[in-house]
Design a protein that fits this description.
With about 325 residues, this protein is α/β, with parallel strands linked by helices. The chain has 2 domains: about 260 residues, Rossmann fold (3-Layer(aba) Sandwich), CATH 3.40.50; about 50 residues, no CATH class. Helices cover about 35% and strands about 25% of the residues. The protein contains 10 helices and 13 strands. Bound molecules: S-adenosylmethionine (SAM). The site of S-adenosylmethionine (SAM) has 19 residues, from helix 4 and helix 5.
């Protein structure tokens, strides 16, 4: 997966005056700070840090969000959202992914606390006819009062940055704000998954229906110490490689997510949780199903399921629906 050309070009433009060595230094400092603190306190201290974030994280959060949104779209192919709330928007990565998934979105509202992120996000969006009209609100989500409803609400890589006691309240408020679908995305780490697992339980208690990735709205069956996550491969631009001081032209972003809806959806009947193991005459699948976690062996004799299993990949829903071809084929654990 790659960024849309307009975003890629705008990002290159925003980064063109930053020396590769400065970008690499800022990237290293931001990564170290983030790793040491899990995002709290806030790890972006300067305008250079914000540019480094855009160079080395925006492509990855865009890719993860885009992958999650395409899975959700598969469960509700006839749904056409018109409005989006991007909460904890950063430079607006999720808004770009959302309009790429649903070009029907024409109304964009973004809430972000960091003014430097907003300036960068506005500069990037100036290049796009629809996104340039986006409304940005500089606000701390903890004290922000929503105004009206949006068809789609996305909070990508932001919920985990709030203090834990404040998350449930914000989850309730963003759910109330959504008239269609709410999507929460976090890093595909044990900590990121715990944020999603808690939010999922809060949302189910509020009466929400889970539409992806889970095939059910029952309690999450994932065992303690394990975590439900997926992976999306993305292309690294020159600036991205410079920032990380690497030469490989791609990386795999791990992410966890949950989507809940107020509108009709047909969740997958099972979700593939690991890379399928292809053996002579059969395929082994690790699945999340309505009956909990299952280890399923699909034999070649079972023609219909075998054909389905052969096309399955880590993260896909069964029965499958059209999906992006470039999802990574790598198991993460
Ligand atoms: C890791 S970035 C993710 C940005 C973007 N959603 C993405 O996917 O690339 C987290 C963003 O959440 C914002 N944020 C964190 N806490 C916030 C709060 N209490 N209110 C508003 N924004 C917040 C940060 O300023 C930062 O821009």
């Amino acid at each position: 997966m790659d960024l849309p050309l307009t975003l890629r070009t705008a990002l290159d433009l925003a980064l063109e005056h930053v020396k590769p060595s400065e970008l690499a230094r800022a990237t290293r400092e931001v990564s170290d700070r983030y790793r040491q603190t899990d995002g709290q306190p806030y790890y972006l201290r300067t305008a250079r840090d914000v540019l480094a974030y855009a160079a080395f994280r925006l492509p990855a959060t865009y890719a993860a969000t885009s992958a999650a949104l395409h899975e959700i779209k598969g469960t509700m192919p006839d749904w056409r959202p018109n409005s989006l709330l991007d909460a904890g928007a950063g430079p607006g990565s999720a808004s770009w992914a959302a309009v790429d998934t649903w070009p029907s979105i024409i109304d964009f509202e973004l809430v972000e606390t960091d003014g430097r992120m907003i300036s960068l996000g506005r500069a990037l969006m100036a290049a796009d006819r629809n996104l340039s009209a986006a409304r940005w609100t500089q606000s701390d989500l903890n004290h922000w009062s929503p105004d009206g409803h949006c068809d789609l609400v996305v909070m990508s890589y932001a919920l985990g940055e709030l203090d834990e006691p404040q998350r449930s309240d914000l989850v309730r408020r963003v759910w109330e704000q959504s008239s269609g679908v709410l999507v929460l995305i976090e890093p595909g780490t044990p900590a990121g998954f715990e944020v999603i697992r808690h939010a999922r339980a809060d949302l189910i208690a509020l009466g929400a229906q889970v539409v992806a990735p889970c095939p059910h709205s029952s309690a999450c069956p994932m065992a303690a110490g394990d975590w439900c996550h997926f992976s999306q491969r993305l292309a690294r631009s020159r600036a991205h490689r410079d920032a990380k001081r690497v030469s490989i032209g791609y990386e795999d972003e791990k992410y966890s997510y949950v989507a809940v809806a107020r509108v009709p959806a047909t969740p997958a009947s099972a979700r593939v949780l690991r890379h399928p193991q292809i053996r002579p005459g059969h395929i082994r699948l690790e699945l999340c199903t309505n009956d909990g976690l299952q280890h399923r062996i699909v034999s070649k004799r079972d023609t219909l399921s075998f054909r389905e299993a052969r096309h399955a990949s880590w993260g896909s829903g069964l029965p499958s629906h059209p999906r992006r071809e470039d999802r990574t084929q790598h198991a993460g654990k």
